[in-house]
What we know:
By secondary structure, this protein is an alpha/beta fold. It has eight helices and eight strands. It is globular. An eight-stranded parallel beta sheet has the order 1-2-3-4-5-6-7-8, with helices on both faces.
Amino acid sequence: MRLVDSHSHFDAPEFDADRPAAHARARAAGVIAQVVPAVDAPAWPKLKKVCAELPGLYPAYGLHPMYLHAHRPAHLDDLAQWIEREAPVAVGECGLDYFVEGLDHQQQQVYFDGQLRLARDFDLPVIVHARRAVDAVIASIRRIGGLRGVVHSFPGSAEQAAQLHTLGFMLGIGGPVTHERANRLRRIVATMPLEQMLLETDAPDQPGAGHRGERNEPAHLIEVLDVVATL
């Protein structure tokens, strides 16, 4: 089995103590590659270093909506320079989060639109976070145009999934699908086109049903695959 974890925060401090061992476990489980998206500008240098030190780690650079307090308008210009110089595999993690209180919607939109334009201009896929904001994300993708990418940890409806498929966007499926009570997500996964699906862990977050309360890690991707195959 040769698997790609399409969304892993393997640069996170939760892995600082045992990153090589966690990487070895992932490789032993068949996870030969990980896409590692950024969350804010100060983290880009560490992400670059981590991806250079271990095989099969591919960086993406972006500005996550949950870290809005850390973003500055100049970071969009900095991001353009990083993308041009470092040639990452994608732009992100970026998007909209209407779940967390206190995150200004208008400011989120400014940074999201800016990153969508960079993804379009550099002809790169975009890694999108959409929590309680899938319709707004779809509207942004339509407005900017010329985009492709993935909505990771897809939280939406079957209708929204179909709209995203039409727009050229894939859906990231991870630990939440392993929980038996995730009925809506399981129905979507059971009927969606296989070519629209990407497997992910979102490590160290969103552990599967067998790892409640534990740190998630890329080796657990095989458990997501098993549930998807069963569905």
